[in-house]
């Protein structure tokens, strides 16, 4: 697959942005400016950026909860992602979602979802809607290696096959579901082979090889988009950090194992490719600096962004016009409901 | 609907608009589905056996022939999968009406209903909506035994983000289902196995809608208020007639119609008038719909009450098979009547 130097440079910028963003997110989490769960994807940048790059502008993306990188790669502004992590009004979900529930429908990103495999049935529904609406687009549904042992995986692959839905299930196999290795969790560790049970095409690719990821994802997404051929793409990668920031990531693996993967860092591999085609070190270093500056700016925006007002506690919960439906439920409501929920933008 | 049914048709436009026809609850649901399928191309039905089999309880009979397999879509036995597909399709602007064969089977899709559909509006800050309808019957009384004789609507009604409707009459079966389909939020419409054959006049106007969040005083009375929903309302109305005939008691029956939002105002106005309340439900009362009602009534009508609020529901056991045991466990007329008389101080 021919990728121009300019495109490769752009993808490298995205990978740098994700790496710097995740590093900053960990720092801000430890400074208690980010709360909740915070799942980082450092080490998985080639898989994230490559698969997302293979999407057309009109295609849809839906992911699990390790989603900062996907949001950034899909084009959600870093300040909207960081402000969401900070729980601020300018976050992409207005401070309601946090790290796990990013979304931006303007770029076709239908959310980070927090229940393992819960997004898979929803992905089939997005694909079904595309078919019903006669739109020649497809859905990329990201999941982790742990999700393939959930019932929703089997139900969703089956629906995608029997209804010929334009969806590609992207298994980010980073070798561990939380702290349990694929070997300890899955009877068949070549996870993509499970697609065979549903007669779906599948590929397993080195997820740290950006070009290989783009090639495989492009082929499978084209099949979904053009022929309504659902498929499974397994990208073998590795996360450098723990399951979440709260997990040092060493109870179930060794420093030596992590170091082995860091030696083949996907960013360095792309940097080497760029050097081969003549992009100089000065320029590459400048790209790193730019990523640092963009992330620093996103933090500045987040720090300046106001907290969502308590007067909007119930924002979005129900559709506009619902307030009238709930008007007769005020009587006898639990203590504080009137002030917090009914006056908090319920259905307005 | 049967050709022998009473038809009320007028000559003037006003008379035509107010025309009604006596039909079963089942036929009223089908009429609502047919009208909404005709009105909006985004409306489609999916569920187990809704098409070729014409519905396990025949609600969708004839619709496959009329609208085709794309809009009346048979699914595999895969509730988590196809409820989730409904969620995803709704997020892209479709109006899926998902039939779950009985509410007992909705438990395997609980994650999609409670932890996905209900969360979308609030969790993503109002950036995306989920106009999904799930319709399903609850209830007991046909020796279906422990796993198929339950009423879980209270669980769902206790979930912010969902709306839960429970029509008791054929007219409201049509009017509430249509309101649910046109609503922009996830709505659970709870039907009942015993109620499908109930008959009543149903407005033929395709714009006839029953408002969400508005209870109905199904029978006016002055001595005591019976609060119920779904088939329990049918029971309450029968009991009210028997009480008038046998005991000279004039009972008012409030049919909730909507559980979330809950019309406490209508309940409170009735209790303020009668000073006594018996709340009835098909399900288990502990932590149930009647528990919520009792809490609301004691708070809003504290000074009006002349007796403690009483509750009648299914006996708190997994339903047994033997007819005598099953019958004993149901909220039968004699149990409701005894509760009313005790609350009035006329017995016990």
Low-confidence stretches of chain A: none
Oligomer: heterodimer
List the helices and strands of chain B in order. Answer: EHEHEHEHEHHEHEHEEEEHEEHEHEHH
**Alpha carbon gap, first and last residue of chain A:** 50 Å
Largest interface: A-B, 56 and 62 residues
Sequence of strands across the biggest β-sheet of chain B: 4-3-5-6-8-7-13
Q: Tell me the major beta sheet of chain B.
A: 7 strands, mixed
Helix run count of chain A: 13
Name the beta content range of chain A: 5-15%
Q: Which strand-content bin applies to the residues of chain B?
A: 15-25%
Which outline of chain A best applies? Answer: globular
Number of strands of chain A: 8
CA-CA gap between termini of chain B: 46 Å
Number of strand segments of chain B:
15
Number of helices of chain B: 13
> What structural category characterises the helix and strand content of chain B?
alpha/beta
Mean pLDDT of chain B: 95
Radius of gyration of chain B, rounded?
Answer: 20 Å
Share of residues in helices of chain B:
25-40%
Instruction: Give the biggest beta sheet of chain A.
Output: 6 strands, parallel
List keywords for this structure.
heterodimer, A: 348 residues, alpha/beta, 6-stranded parallel β-sheet, two-stranded antiparallel sheet, 10% strand, B: 348 residues, 7-stranded mixed β-sheet, 5-stranded mixed β-sheet, 13 helices, 15 strands, 35% helix, disordered N terminus
How does this structure look, described?
The complex is a heterodimer of chains A (348) and B (348). With 348 residues, chain A is of the alpha/beta class. Chain A has helices at residues 5-30, 45-53, 68-74, 78-85, 119-132, 151-162, 182-185, 210-227, 255-263, 266-276, 281-304, 322-326, 337-342, and strands at 60-63, 109-112, 139-144, 167-173, 176-177, 180-181, 202-206, 231-236. In chain A, strand 3, helix 6 (151-162) and strand 4 (167-173) form a beta-alpha-beta unit. In chain A, helix 1 (5-30) crosses helix 11 (281-304) and helix 4 (78-85) packs across helix 11. The longest helix of chain B has 17 residues, at 231-247. Mean pLDDT of chain B is 95; it is low at 1-6. The N and C termini of chain B lie far apart (46 Å). Chain B has 13 helices and 15 strands. In chain B, the strands form three sheets. A seven-stranded mixed sheet of chain B has the order 4-3-5-6-8-7-13, with helices on both faces. A five-stranded mixed sheet of chain B has the order 10-12-11-14-15, with helices on both faces. The chains are: A alpha/beta (348), B alpha/beta (348). The interface between A and B is large, with 56 and 62 residues.
């Amino acid at each position: 697959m021919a990728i121009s130097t300019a495109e490769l440079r752009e993808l490298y910028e995205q990978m740098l942005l994700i790496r710097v963003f995740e590093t900053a997110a960990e720092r801000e989490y430890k400074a208690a400016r980010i709360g909740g769960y915070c799942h980082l994807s450092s080490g998985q940048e080639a898989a994230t950026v490559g698969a997302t790059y293979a999407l057309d502008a009109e295609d849809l993306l839906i992911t699990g909860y390790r989603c900062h990188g996907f949001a950034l790669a899909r084009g959600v502004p870093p300040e909207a992602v960081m402000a969401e992590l900070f729980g601020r009004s300018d976050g992409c979900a207005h401070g309601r979602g946090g790290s796990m529930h990013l979304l931006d429908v303007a770029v076709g990103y239908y959310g980070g979802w927090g229940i393992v495999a819960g997004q898979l049935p929803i992905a089939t529904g997005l694909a079904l809607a595309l078919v019903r609406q006669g739109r020649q687009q497809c859905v990329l549904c990201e999941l982790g290696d742990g999700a393939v042992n959930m019932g929703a995986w089997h139900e969703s692959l089956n629906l995608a096959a029997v209804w010929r839905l334009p969806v590609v299930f992207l298994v980010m196999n980073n070798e561990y579901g939380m702290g349990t290795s694929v070997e300890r969790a899955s009877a068949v560790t070549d996870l993509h082979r499970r697609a065979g049970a549903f007669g779906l095409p599948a590929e397993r690719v080195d997820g740290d090889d950006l070009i290989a990821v783009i090639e495989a994802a492009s082929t499978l997404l084209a099949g979904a988009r053009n022929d309504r051929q659902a498929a499974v793409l397994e990208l073998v990668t590795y996360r450098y950090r723990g399951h979440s920031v709260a997990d040092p990531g060493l109870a179930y693996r060794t420093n030596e194992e992590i170091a082995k993967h860091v030696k083949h860092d996907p960013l360095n591999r792309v940097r080497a490719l760029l050097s081969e085609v003549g992009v100089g070190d000065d320029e590459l270093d400048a790209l790193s600096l730019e990523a640092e500056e963009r992330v620093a700016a996103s933090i500045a925006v987040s720090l300046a962004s106001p907290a969502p007002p308590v007067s909007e506690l119930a924002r979005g919960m129900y559709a506009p016009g619902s307030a009238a439906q709930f008007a007769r439920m005020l009587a006898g409501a639990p203590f504080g409901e009137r002030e917090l929920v009914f006056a908090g933008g319920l259905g307005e | 609907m049967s050709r022998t049914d009473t038809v009320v048709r007028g000559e003037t436009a006003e008379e035509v608009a107010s025309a009604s026809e006596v039909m079963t609850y089942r036929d009223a649901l089908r009429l609502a589905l047919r009208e909404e399928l005709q009105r909006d191309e985004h409306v489609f039905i999916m569920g187990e056996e809704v098409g070729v089999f014409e519905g396990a309880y025949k609600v969708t009979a004839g619709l496959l022939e009329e609208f085709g397999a794309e809009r009346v879509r048979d699914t595999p036995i895969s509730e988590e999968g196809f409820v989730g597909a409904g969620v995803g399709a709704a997020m892209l602007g479709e109006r899926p009406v998902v039939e779950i064969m009985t509410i007992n089977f909705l438990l395997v899709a609980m994650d999609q209903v409670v932890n996905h559909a209900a969360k979308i509006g609030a969790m993503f800050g109002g950036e995306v909506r989920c106009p999904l309808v799930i319709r399903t019957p609850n209830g007991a009384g046909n020796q279906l035994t422990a796993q198929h004789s339950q009423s879980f609507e209270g669980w769902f009604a206790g979930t912010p983000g969902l709306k839960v409707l429970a029509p008791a009459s054929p007219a409201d079966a049509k009017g509430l289902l249509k309101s649910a389909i046109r609503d922009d939020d996830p709505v659970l419409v709870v039907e009942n196995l015993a109620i499908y054959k109930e008959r009543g006049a149903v407005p033929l106007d395709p714009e006839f809608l029953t408002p969400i969040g508005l209870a109905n005083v199904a029978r006016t009375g002055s001595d005591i208020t019976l609060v119920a929903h779904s088939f329990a309302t049918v029971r309450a109305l029968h009991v009210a007639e028997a009480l008038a005939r046998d005991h000279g008691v004039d009972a008012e029956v409030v049919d909730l119609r909507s559980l979330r939002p809950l019309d406490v105002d209508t309940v409170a106005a009735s209790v303020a008038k009668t000073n006594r309340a018996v709340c009835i439900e098909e399900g288990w009362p502990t932590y149930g719909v009647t528990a919520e009602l009792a809490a609301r009534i004691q708070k809003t009508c504290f000074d009006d009450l002349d007796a403690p609020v009483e509750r009648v529901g299914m006996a708190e056991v997994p339903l047994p098979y033997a007819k005598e045991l099953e019958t004993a466990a149901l909220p039968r007329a004699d149990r409701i009547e005894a509760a009313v008389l005790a609350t009035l101080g006329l017995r016990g």
